[in-house]
Amino acid sequence: MGSSRLICSFIGVLIHLRESPGCSAASSIDVPLRGAAVQSSTYAGWSAGQAIDGSCSPDGNDSCSHTGEMDNPWWRLQLDGVYRVSVIEITNRNIARDRLDGVEIHIGNSLVNNGNDNPRCAIIHDVPDGLTQTVHCWGMEGMYVNFYKPFNTTYLMLCEVKVYGELAPPPPSISTPGVGMNVTLVGKRLCWSDALFYCRDYHWDLLTLRGPVEQEIVDHLVARAPFPLTSHLWVGLRRSILGSSWFWMSGDPMDFTQWDEASQEPSPCGGVSSIERSTWRQRFCGEHLNFICFTGGKKVRFFSTTRVKPTCKN
Fold first, then answer.
1. 3-state secondary structure the chain
2. Which residues contact 12 (CB under 8 A, 6 or more apart)?
3. Where are the alpha helices (DSSP H) in the chain?
4. Mean pLDDT score across all residues of the chain
């Protein structure tokens, strides 16, 4: 693994952060990155972003984040990509230091339970000999870094969080030109809604199949995939919530279908078979399957201020 990079984020802007003397032992590299911090609640204006403002002051007020008193408070940093996290530095406040005791650090790519169900890196506690402590996460991968305190009627307070790591390599994929677009089969396995987010983050959208020519392109692409595939592959098929009609997430008309009517399951998500050519099937939306994205054609503009709700549901 190459040298670690400092991943320090601030809401909505590009910034350069310089290490404050005595508050970091991991790196002195200035790195401009974008990101956002949110928390479960906010006490007296002590916002989530104050824990990533570059100041390691333990005095509170304008330099620390602070939730309100509540059950199971949490704070989350969304990085600007998927990283292999090596080290996290946490600066505690100089009073009420026990509020850091028992806080769990979770890293991953899911927002189920606000990201608090992602794999756990460590459980941290107040350190008597210093306000800043270092936690090693040994290359855990994720876009979200959560601090979660699984206790009732309590606060969560952080004066500075610094995350070090490097961009994770992309999952295996294979691409081919399509009709006015580029088609990419992704080796990563996700539920349907997370596959949709992935395609919209890194490509344009989940694939739309508008006719037999595009279906044949997909069949040939699947046949030469250099990595193992799930039995079905997510595409941009979705069924109307209040009816039985299907539509493409890209907004294209449903003028062409290849449904296998003999073996349908009552699910609002659709995929193509990787085993039987030119066959579509309904699948349970929570299944973790490979998926197909496309770039080009009609761009769908997708906006989300936060992704705080579970995604892997029907």
1. CCCCEEECCCECCCCCCCCCCCCCCCCCCCCCCCEEEEECCCCCCCCHHHHHCCCCCCCCCCCCEECCCECCCEEEEEEEEEEEEEEEEEECCCCCHHHHCCEEEEEECCCHHHHCCCCEEEEECCCCCCCEEEEEEEEEEEEEEEEECCCCCECCEECEEEEEEEECCCCCEEEEECCCEEEEEEEEEECHHHHHHHHHHHCCEECCCCCHHHHHHHHHHHHCCCCCCCCEEEEEEEECCCCCCEEECCCCCCCCCCECHHHCCCCCEEEEECCCCCCEEEECCCCCEEEEEEEECCCCCCCCCCCCCCCCCC
2. 34, 36
3. 192-202, 212-223
4. 83
Integer Cα distance of 36 and 8 in angstroms: 10
- For the entire predicted model, the pTM comes to 0.63
Q: How many CB atoms lie within 10 A of CB 18?
A: 9
Q: Answer yes or no: is pLDDT of 99 > 80.
A: yes
Look up residue 118 and give its DSSP letter: S
Give residue 291's identity as a one-letter amino acid code.
F
Residue 117 has pLDDT above 80, yes or no: yes
User: Distance between CA 6 and CA 2 in Å, rounded?
Assistant: 13
What is the phi/psi pair of residue 236, to 5°?
-80, 35
**Exposure of 36 in the CB half-sphere (CA atoms within 13 A):** 8
Query: d(Cα 304, Cα 306) in Å, to the nearest integer?
Result: 5
> What's the confidence (pLDDT) of residue 242?
78
Amino acid at 70: M
